[in-house]
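Take a look at the protein record below with the fold in mind.
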Amino acid sequence: MNTMTLWDISPWGFAALACAALLVGFSKTAVSGANTVSLAIFAAVLPARASTGILLPVLITGDVLAVLTYRRHAHWPTLWRLFPAVGAGVVLGTLFLVWADDGIVRTSIGAILLLMTAVTLWRRRRADQAGEPETETTPAARARARSYGVLGGFTTMVANAGGPVMSMYLLSAGFRKLGFLGTSAFFFLIVNVAKVPFSAGLGLIDGRSLLLDAALALFVVPGAFLGKWAVHHIDQRLFERLVIVATVVGALQLLLR
């Protein structure tokens, strides 16, 4: 499969990708899940299948910066509980990508974005209404965690869109801000690095795509520093509303192309 190179993209297209990379860095250190907007931008500028592979190293760059920022706040028992189910979801997502062509992948990304937006809205409503966070000690709760893991693995492999699923799970498990950011940072770093061989095997990552990634990674760094500053100052509810609107617009644009 031919991937996009730096010279195949118009200046406006590269500017859009650079903004998306900046938002990746910001989302990794401030508002987890905001990079669904980046996903929509990448899929709009690049071929849908290629966009998932090109975005992956950009996400890993943001994950590394997030781990360096919040490494002391990760909760490893939660991570070990999730990884087996996530691995199964990644395998299912890989099989889907083997079968799906570019049009199906683009439509799937749009549908997944709308689904993740609905999940995020439902999670926010539950968080507002719940007096106490849910616990993970009952068989039903553990089954729910496995379900989130499989869905998160599938969506992150197919569309790099596992953030809202994991956000809902971590918030329902009662994580506070720093614990949430630290746990999700390690989670996505490990999962995204594990996805690299799958993406390379599918032809979604090669030397030319990595050249574009190297250029875009330069924009992730200032985004991460901006997020580290903003996490203590940002009006998160307003920002989440803007993210939801932008995500819906991006999803509809993909579905209607």
